[in-house]
Amino acid sequence: MASDLRVLLVTYTTLCLFSSICAVFGQQDGVRNDPGAGQIPAAAGWQQTKRDVAPVAGGQGQGPLGGIAAGVGNGAQPQYQQQQKLRINPGQGLGAGQRAFQKPAPGQFDPNQKFDQGNQRPNVGLPGQGPGAGPGGMGGQGQWAPKPVGQQPQGQWQGGQQPQGKPKLGPNRPMRISESPACHDDVANLCGKNALRNNFSILECLQNAGENTRAGKKDGGELSDVCNQFLWSYKYNLTRDVRFDSAAFEVCKPDLKKLPECAAIEKGQGLLLPCLYEVAENITTVQCRQYINRMKAITFSDYRLIKDFYTQCQSDVDKLGCGIVYKKGEETALPHKQGATINCLEKKIEELGETCKKQILRVAELTAEDYHTDRALFFACRDDRERFCEAETAGQGAIYNCLLKHKFKEDMSENCRNKLTTRQKVASVDYKANYRLIRKCKEDMKKTKCAKLRDSQGREFRLSKLLICLEEAKHNDVKLSGDCVAELEETRKSLMEDFMVNPEVITQCKKEMANQCSGLQRGGKTLHCLMKLTQGNPKDPKKLSDNCETALMQLVKTADAGANYRIDKALHKACKPVRDKICKEVEAGDAKVLSCLMEHIYDPEMTKECETELLLLQYFVSRDFKLDPLLYKNCKRDVQDLCFTEDFENSNLPEGVVFACLHRHLHPDDREMTLQPGCQAQVHRLLRQRAVSVHLNPQIEANCRSDIGQYCADKTGKGEELSCLQEHHKELSDDCKSKIGGFTEEEAEDIKMNRKLMAACAPMIKQFCKDFLSKKVDEGAALQCLIDHKNDDEMNEKCQAGIEHFQLIQLQDYRFNFKFKESCRKDVIAFCKTSKDKSSIVNCLSSKVRDDTLKDNPQNISEECRKQLKAELLQRSEDIKLDPELFQGCEDDVKKLCSNLKAGKARILECLRDHRKELGEKCHLKLFNRVKEQAQNVKTDFAFMHSCQRMIKQFCPGTAPDSLFKCLKAHKNEPSFDPNCKAVLTKRSIQKKEDFRLNPRMQKACRRDMPKFCNDILDKSKTKEYQEKSMEGEMLLCLKTKFVVKQLSPDCENYVKDTIQEASLDIRMDPILYRVCKDTARKLCGEQMESPGQGQVEECLKSKLHEGKVHDIKCRMQVIRLLQEGRADIHVDTLLYKACALDIKHFCVGIPQGEGRQMSCILEALEDTTIKLHPDCRRMLAERKETWSYAVKESPPGSLSDLAAMVNASEARGYFLTVLLVIIGVLFFGGLCCGRATKRIRAELKNK
Length: 1248
Description:
The protein is mainly α and 1248 residues long. The strands form 2 sheets. The protein has a two-stranded antiparallel ribbon with strand order 1-4. Strands 2-3 form a two-stranded antiparallel ribbon. A hairpin with a 7-residue loop joins strand 2 (31-32) and strand 3 (40-41). Residues 1-173, 213-219 and 325-336 have low confidence and may be disordered. It is found in: Membrane.
């Protein structure tokens, strides 16, 4: 680079007036030494301080310099060692430089004068000026067009005469600047008397004069155009002297011995100092370092002093308007000086040509160590440096770093802030312009090979590439030094603070910043404004251009903001109070802080500000798995092995594709490999955290943009868009439906992914289901636990609503229920292929189970699936909304009959069952089918299970589902039996008696008897009419008549006997008796009807029948039937058996039960006067005999079968059979005799 960047430097050798100044080494009186800033006379108001003395290698201090370096050191500090003085023999001429300061004859041109770059012809200049120089303004193409000598402006001499009162030069005497006619007045006005004998102090003073004025300094003053031009020519011509390099060789001799590449440079070519700049970090001697820093301040004060820079950047200077500093009214603009042109080009670096950009970046590298060498920044930030960085020592980038830390303080001047931004902007293009970063990470860069990375054109990578390289090395467990890590963090913070330091963001997001994010520069506000545009609006989701989003993505990647929440200042400010409360145990700089904040995003402690900033950053982190250090560290190997992206670190993969691959392998097919445990945990973590917003799921967002706009435009809250898409799953486009389906399946597997439900149910989970959360993935167990406790008294409404919402979502696809999907996948494929949603699949599977049960066939549905099916049916019976088919069929009836009831706890379903006779045909049929399914397995009957759960545990633990009813009925009269359970038990028993189709036990016990004796009723039940209404107990009545005549099979007889026995205690258990006698019973037995379950209603009706008060013929016949059933078996007459149980045991021992045998025995004991029965038994038997006798009189047989049954049941059946046989015999013989006597046969027939 040294050959391309030739710097024309002014050295102190030629500035000194040899015999009088250089002969004595030490500090000039009244002069302040400031390394890098030059000497400033005391008259200018400067105070000498120690803080600007930069340390050098080995910790040596700085001493005063003599000879060519005179005025550079700081001899005023007593603790520094005195260095050897260097003398230059006086009397030596200045060569070209000397001739430049001598007055030429008017109209003549000195052939020894040097031409400025860009000049096409020599012009006669002022004394001390280079050719082509004049007081005029800037000409085209960088040429100077001075006025003729005869037209010099005021303040210059004319006609070869020097102004009166000015110092005169001797014939061979070197000229001091103070004695030059062009600058004598300026020196006197601006620099004071103490500096008059020190050319270097005067040069520094005059260079700073204009800047003091623009900075508002009291000692400020404008430098005349004549003096300004003189100084330019003065510095320019001095660089042509061979002694310029000789001075550098002398001062830096010890270092040059170690730097052969610089020692070999030919003198007088202007290449030595550029070479020393290149290796400045290897220079150890104090004198050389100070000399180089002092030369930089002069070198970069005017871009024209930099050879090749002038030629290669002139077109850019003209094009971008960087050749003008300021205008005084309408006066001609002056050329830039004091680094202003360089600063202008730096600000517009993205618009520069490649050759000029290369020069600008190199200048930035050379001025990186000491802020004094960046002249524009130095002058802009002098006051701010005193205000904020007074204790900082100059050099090694310390002042830069200090000023950057205070960049957004309220009292930081805007001019300084802007210059710092420009500097940062250049450093983002060339990382070598960041001196502290390079210095502190030098060894780490070598170790990680990040220092050798170059782009396709052989140039060093940008700052972003270096940062990414070092951060990836860190994530790969390469140990970086503490200083390097700290500096990386500071650099990344600065990138996220101000969009102005990011050229790509400025270029690509120009439109967005102008229209939507203007005026929000400080503290990362503009960047976060741009980041918010990525969220968009459901109606107009694309508010940010692709190029701008890509630039922001690259910025987040460069800053590695996902690794440390402190990098993003806006995020840090918003979330620090939250972090201190809920994540205080996590180290502040750890990547786990962001993860912790995401895990607690629904916590009450989470603020809206923190939530907003957190989600903005996560939007970008979610699109590149390398931005999440925890995921990257644990899944790097899996990505290489399973996702076929070995070079994923350098590949431009689509957003979210790597994570999508990892997600897919979370549940691989049998032929695929699965993720490592650590990677599995991280994928599950991110699935949970990103479930909070559709924007954190790139695959969903990309495929569902139009669906969000169509269905979820008004859903803007946290997690609302995802919930909305789940609710409209059936209506979504195919691609979106697939992505949302996969997301919902994951939610079903891991409840922690359902962030809204977790937030709503956190206390309930701790109370009921905390054991399930100990697993990394609960596999649907925690959700099932919440559903099981959904209707507990302790369950809060918020959690209950969340559970119901997800249950409704699960109805859309059986795969949305993890346990059901895993248990029934094969059964669904085998038996329910045509079923689409979960509801239809549940109906299909339950029908198959019911049919196999009723037909005593082996179950085709697997045991695991049947278990899950029961849970699904139980959930469905709890809330009619969870049964879409029933809800749609009964919606009008619900509004009409049950509108005052709140959904849940099976209230609506029970209401419909209570009003079943009032339902429409469609609703009745749907409800009947549901009730029939519940009858097959009482564990799917929510109202029953919810009311009787405690009683089942107490009285029937371990009882099979088909025996639960019988077990609970056996204990329902226990004192401790729950009345709610008893009420539900009674209701279900009544409904089973009314319709045999709802009574699986009857169907199973009497499956042969019903077709044999009651086939007409079976046929009737299959008609369309009776598919929609109840059989009203007809089948049970038919079987009871056969029970009386002892025609039933043993199983059916036992069932009917149990039914009659149950009905003897509760009239409601006899559907026909209750239906026809309800009004009579209320009229005659009103008191007993208040508690119908004690058997007193039946006793009352029997006594009223005997008294002749039952006038309703239908009711009378049913009471008589009741008496006949009790006479057939004493055990079915519960009250009578209870009264006579001891007597039967004592007097009828050995007599088997059934067929009325024990009843006959006890009746015989009643007639035997020697047997003393229990008074209650004797009384009730006597009453029964009288009632039976009355019943026989009042109940003529309705058919021959009834007559036969009555005769068979009568005690005198032998007598009736004898009479019947006699009558038949008489008829037979009478007919035989009478028939032959009366019938005549013709003779011809007899003779045949």
